[in-house]
Specification:
18% helix, alpha+beta, two-stranded antiparallel ribbon, 231 residues
Length: 231
């Protein structure tokens, strides 16, 4: 079985789930961790909760309150409320096809497997990926590994080893990471996208059955991790 290693040091040991499907936030979740309440509070004060600096403020407050190092946004979530006003929402593509790893600072990013970096690039538009890379694992039949929202200091194409520092998180300043709070978008790809194109990061509900096969759940390659996060 193909298994990934962590892409940030401490990710598997010191993370907490971040619920971005507002309709599925547990009633028992502390208020400080409730993104829906944060949106309501910002909007009541005339503040845009979708602004990356505000989303970063929320992440920082949750990390401080919980003592966690990272927050994890899940694959398969319907993020319609979180994506309000975005191109994805306009197109009805609100089901997330990756996991997100949110942090306070701009963390080093590690190769999750042995393989080769086969592509790097930059997606310019607002709420795009910003800087990204794609790894082809050594293991035959394993999916490609896509990581988005990185810094502008991208690695050269070529050989990488699991655990090797290959990049760092990008910032929302000057659209380096596509205009999001600090996090890495980790997505599995069954096929390499055409040159100059990037994979969709969100699916419509109608196409999710197909897209879930093309972009499988990254938690499948971290055995037991989701269960620990949900406990």
């Amino acid at each position: 079985m193909f298994v990934l290693q962590e892409i940030m040091s401490g990710m598997l040991e010191n993370s907490r789930m971040l619920y971005l499907d507002f309709g599925k936030i547990p009633h028992s979740l502390p208020q400080v961790e409730n993104m829906s309440l944060f949106f309501d509070d910002c909007e009541s004060r005339g503040i845009d909760p979708k602004a990356p600096i505000e989303r970063q403020r929320f992440s920082d407050s949750v990390l401080s309150a919980t003592g966690a190092q990272f927050l994890i946004g899940a694959w398969g979530e319907d993020r319609a409320a979180w994506l309000r006003g975005s191109l994805m929402e306009e197109e009805g593509r609100t089901i997330h096809l990756a996991i997100d790893i949110f942090s306070r600072g701009l963390e080093p990013v590690l190769a999750p497997c042995n393989g080769r970096i086969v592509r790097t690039g930059y997606e310019e538009h607002l709420h795009g990926y910003g800087h990204y890379l794609i790894i082809q694992p050594d293991e035959v039949g394993a999916p490609f590994v896509f990581m988005g929202h990185l810094s502008s200091k991208l690695p050269e194409l070529g050989r990488v080893n699991a655990g090797q520092v290959i990049a760092s998180e990008g910032d929302f300043v000057n659209q380096e990471n596509g205009g999001w709070s600090r996090h890495v978008h980790l997505q599995m790809l069954q096929e390499l996208p055409p040159e100059g194109e990037t994979p969709i990061g969100y699916s419509t509900r109608e196409d999710f059955a197909i897209n879930s096969q093309l972009y499988p759940n990254p938690f499948n390659y971290y055995p037991g991790w989701k269960e620990v996060l949900m406990s």
